[in-house]
Amino acid sequence: MPHLQVASLKLYYKKDSSVVRAVDGVELAVERGETLGIVGESGCGKSSLASAIFRSFPQNVALFEGSVRLGDVDITRIGEEEFRKDYRWRRIAMVPQSSMNSLDPIYTVGKQMVETIQEHSDMSEREAKELSEGMLREVELPVEVFNRYPFQLSGGQKQRVMIALALILNPELLIADEPTTALDVVVQSKILRLLSRLSSERRMTSIYITHDMGVVSVVASRVAVMYAGRIVEVAPASELFANPLHPYTQS
Ligand SMILES: Nc1ncnc2c1ncn2[C@@H]1O[C@H](COP(=O)(O)OP(=O)(O)OP(=O)(O)O)[C@@H](O)[C@H]1O
Ligand SMILES: [Mg+2]
């Protein structure tokens, strides 16, 4: 049984008097421990698919239907309270698009990490601090970053903090939405290697969203191509390059 199985998933938005079909019948299966890449042109629905799986929606949702199975549980059927308590961040984590700018500027990195842990677990402040410091080491940041404010960090360091925050509760599924797009090429490849290492060490199932085929070939074993709200092609990363079927993939 696949670890994650998405079927007939739709997420539409209301916009003025029309409807935007951002996710329009997605079918997808990811095995446990596998890293799947999702590529597609801007606006094809990649981030919307991520938010549909993570169940974090904007106000103007017009339709959300279909199923998202994690193991044998359809998580679209779980009440919001239970989802918030047991799934979001604990079992499913996300590094959202442009997230390095979403750190709160007025709190230190450490405070934001400790708060995230305490919101979702019964850990004491001291335990949470220890876990945070350990996690900073895992993402290869100096432990002093704990006491720093976001403005004192580089873009790459902030993105490492976001990855540390996503992984801190040891999720089984990680969705990373364009985790390296805003960074320069050298920092990008370091972050990608870091994410690959952490995914395999933790046997995490991972989804990487990107519009960059080069990025995807570094991290993913299989690649799904998204176009106009649907997955139009899924293939091993190597095959997709050698023999692309869909016109979007070819281009
Ligand atoms: N909150 C919203 N309300 C209305 N339309 C939206 C909303 N969010 C996204 N859209 C639209 O839904 C479609 C899919 O957007 P989405 O952000 O999921 O695409 P994407 O593939 O992630 O694009 P990018 O590569 O630029 O990040 C686009 O047409 C977008 O304009
Ligand atoms: Mg996006």
UniProtKB/TrEMBL annotation:
Cellular component GO terms held in the UniProt record: plasma membrane
Pfam (any one): ABC_tran
SMART domains assigned to the protein according to its UniProt record, in alphabetical order: AAA
Organism expressing this protein natively: Candidatus Marsarchaeota G2 archaeon ECH_B_2
Keyword Cell membrane part of the UniProt annotation: yes
Subcellular location: Cell membrane
Membrane-topology annotation of the record: Peripheral membrane protein
InterPro entries assigned to the protein according to its UniProt record, in alphabetical order: AAA+_ATPase, ABC_Ni/Peptide_Import, ABC_transporter-like_ATP-bd, ABC_transporter-like_CS, P-loop_NTPase
Protein name: ABC transporter domain-containing protein
Keyword annotations: ATP-binding, Cell inner membrane, Cell membrane, Membrane, Nucleotide-binding, Translocase, Transport
Start and end residues of each ABC transporter domain: 4-251
Keyword match Nucleotide-binding: yes
GO molecular function terms attached to this record: ATP binding; ATP hydrolysis activity
